[in-house]
Design a protein that fits this description.
329 residues; 10 helices; single chain; binds zinc ion; alpha/beta; Rossmann fold
């Protein structure tokens, strides 16, 4: 049964990283700018470890309201095409493999698990290009139903914390834009450590709270993705999270992930001029949307690409990757 906003229950939990119960007063108030669902959300800073996290937050059981009809359901076909067939998606898969290969080559027969695999674009790319033995898991049955390839990939729908994988089993595990969504990031990484082979690697990709674009755009910053992004890692906090789970950081970088400037402007446009459903937009609004769309394309080429490229060199672009190793003893 579908949930409504009235069903959503909010909770004030401890810091997801250190467990302390010492939140600062709210440091940012925002909205669901992407899917335009109801609610006002606040971020606080842990006064113990300084991680920024959402509090109060929707409970695990009622957060489903904010995921429904997003990655699956009505918007599914649009999202699926973007995530599987766009040049952008292919470029990101190439880039993600290349990032892992800064630490170790991905070889045929390696066991690779993608946690939060969505429709499977990355794991299928790695399987085809590197001949790895591919595994994937996602919580969302809608995504798994439309998964790109269930014949050659071991695909499961569920929570990795259910413990369905063997101990010391995988060579590489990826969590791409996933760790910021989970309720217990340290517990998830402890499970990752259990199922990795000794010396195996995990690649963690999340938004970067250190980003200059985050400071410029504030609550318009696209990677805020309230309320489904529960914690916001700086580079230091992402490394702390891995270390708390007993993993050793071996490589960390900011990412060249273009689009955040353009899309943050898009979020701001929606906030200022409203964001009604397509069928409620009149002729004038459609014309303005078209002009703004063209303007955003110009921003993408002239501003987004060079700015994100430059910020990445200084560790200050909007996304980051950390690769960590399971100790061998
Ligand atoms: Zn903390």
């Amino acid at each position: 049964m579908k949930l409504t906003y009235q069903d959503v229950v909010f909770e004030e939990g401890p810091c997801p990283l250190c467990g302390a119960q010492r939140p600062s007063p709210p440091i940012l108030t925002g909205y669901d700018s992407t899917w335009r669902k109801e609610g006002t959300f606040t971020l606080v800073r842990c006064q113990e470890c300084e991680l920024v996290y959402q509090s109060p937050r929707p409970t695990r059981e009622t957060m489903r309201y904010y995921y429904e009809d997003c990655y699956s359901g009505e918007k599914e076909e649009e999202m699926r095409t973007f995530m599987l067939e766009s040049g952008f998606s292919r470029m990101m898969s190439v880039y993600r493999v290349a990032t892992i290969e800064k630490v170790t080559p991905m070889k045929p027969g390696m066991r690779v698990l993608d946690i939060g695999a969505s429709y499977g674009a990355f794991i299928e790319h790695a399987r085809v290009k590197r001949g790895i033995e591919a595994y994937a898991i996602d919580l969302d049955p809608g995504s798994i139903e439309k998964f790109v390839n269930t014949e050659d990939i071991d695909v499961r729908c569920g929570d990795v914390l259910e413990g369905m994988y063997e101990t010391d089993y995988f060579d590489v595990i990826t969590l791409l834009e996933t760790l910021e969504h989970v309720y217990d990031p340290v517990v998830v990484l402890e499970e990752v450590r259990r199922i990795l082979k000794p010396g195996g690697l995990v690649s963690l990709e999340v938004p970067n709270w250190d980003a200059v674009t985050r400071m410029v755009f504030g609550s318009w910053w696209l990677p805020l993705l309230l309320p489904t992004h529960l914690q916001h890692f700086s580079r230091r906090h992402l490394a702390m999270c891995a270390e708390r789970a007993g993993l050793e950081p071996v490589h960390q970088q900011a990412m060249f992930y273009p689009g955040e400037v353009t899309m943050s402007f898009g979020v701001g446009y929606g906030r200022i001029f409203g964001n009604p459903p397509d069928e409620e937009r009149g002729v004038l609004r459609r014309a303005v949307d078209l002009v703004v769309g063209l303007f955003l394309m110009i921003i993408f080429v002239l501003i987004d690409l060079p700015v994100v490229f430059t910020l990445r060199l200084f560790g200050r672009s909007g996304h980051q990757t950390l690769i960590a190793r399971k100790p061998t003893n």
